[in-house]
Design a protein that fits this description.
By secondary structure, the chain is of the alpha+beta class. The protein has helices at residues 6-19, 77-86, 99-107, 137-147, 167-190, 199-209, 212-229, and strands at residues 28-33, 36-42, 58-61, 66-67, 92-96, 127-128, 152-155, 159-164. Strands 4-3-2-1-5-8-7-6 form an 8-stranded mixed β-sheet, sandwiched between helices. The structure holds zinc ion.
Length: 232
């Protein structure tokens, strides 16, 4: 049975992102505590992403200080807390290391919506230019500034941050982000120009697809897939 607690969902999302290759020995996903929006739940620094459980999840405040003890939070927790401080609309944040999307930050080619699920990123994907790990509030604030009001930002030569309204949506957005990048990458092997969605097309497809049912369908698919393969 799936653990439907917030900590259980965070741990499951991290295990699924790892089995899908979007996280590895690094990467983290966090969410605001619904009882206290100034508290953040996040997977800990030293537990492998492929086996993390609800019991491992730690709670920190908006400056990354642990609340109630527990395991050590990730060294890049400032990346999460800075986004939560600047974006009241954000309930969940993921920091992932997607192979293809990250390559666009290195190639200096913008990510455009070229695939139905890529509609989520139609407002553009900013690139944070510093390759440093985000281990201080100052760097976190810079990254959050680069992200602005966007759904996702690339971190040059490093990875990405993706934000959403809940854990399932954050996981889904991560999957769709890399899927769109894969299609864009494939199309660019065939042609130097690509037929990206127009702003009107993007808005129309997004309104049709970014709904709780579709998010749940994506989440359930990966839960079932991971269980059948015995990897989550
Ligand atoms: Zn990282």
């Amino acid at each position: 049975m799936t653990d439907e607690t917030l900590a259980g969902k965070i741990a499951l999302a991290v295990r699924m992102l790892t089995s899908e290759g979007l996280m590895d020995f690094n990467g983290h996903l966090s969410a605001r505590d619904p009882q206290n929006p100034n508290h953040i739940l996040i997977n800990p620094r030293h537990v492998s992403r492929s086996v993390v459980t609800a019991q491992d999840i730690v709670t920190v405040d908006l400056r990354g200080q642990p609340v109630n003890g527990g395991k050590e939070p990730p060294s890049e927790t400032p990346l999460h807390t800075a986004i939560y401080r600047q974006r009241a609309d954000v309930i969940s944040v993921a920091h992932i290391h997607p192979q293809i999307a990250t390559a666009f930050s290195i190639a200096q080619i913008p990510i455009e919506p070229v695939f139905t699920l890529g509609c989520l990123f139609g407002d553009g994907v900013p690139v944070y230019d510093k390759p440093d790990l985000i281990r201080t509030d100052a760097l976190g604030d810079e990254l959050a500034e680069s992200l602005g009001a966007a759904r996702a930002a690339l971190m040059r030569g490093h990875g990405a941050v993706v934000v959403a309204e809940n854990v399932e949506a954050c996981f889904t957005a991560c999957i769709w982000f890399e899927e769109n990048a894969k299609k864009l990458f494939a199309a660019r092997q065939m042609s130097t120009t690509v037929h990206a969605f127009t702003p009107a097309e993007t808005a129309r497809v997004k309104a049709d697809l970014w709904r709780p049912e579709t998010i749940r369908k994506t989440w359930d698919y990966y839960v079932d897939k991971g269980k059948r393969a015995g990897v989550i």
